[in-house]
Design a protein that fits this description.
By secondary structure, this protein is an alpha+beta fold. Helix content is about 40%, strand content about 15%. Helix 2 crosses helix 3.
Amino acid sequence: MLQISETITLQDWEMTETFIRSSGPGGQNVNKVSTAVELRFEAARSPNLPDPVKARLKRLAGRRWTKDGALILQVDDTRSQARNREIARERLAALIRDALKRPTRRIPTKPTLGSKRRRLDAKTQRGQIKALRGRVQDRE
């Protein structure tokens, strides 16, 4: 079980961990031991997450969200399999906590009368500058 908040707890069946060989430094250990963790969370099928949270989670996950509604996190930060597993679970919990936050609604505002006047004055001034760019006439 993974505790996300007071109300949301993820069950073990919703998450699948597979261990793969890690890339990067580590000498011969890299070739022998599968230390990297690929955590697969079945987000679309999860009964613990409300639909708006799932939608926000999908947007936050980006490319890590699969077509069948699973969220895949891959961690190979350390040489320890246990530590990589903890990091993957922490990242999943942080991502879900971010999705729990309801975005604040933007209140549309109108431009002030002064800002409208300043904008129009700048446009007129710019137009006058451009009008003076014409061909110079010779006086005879």
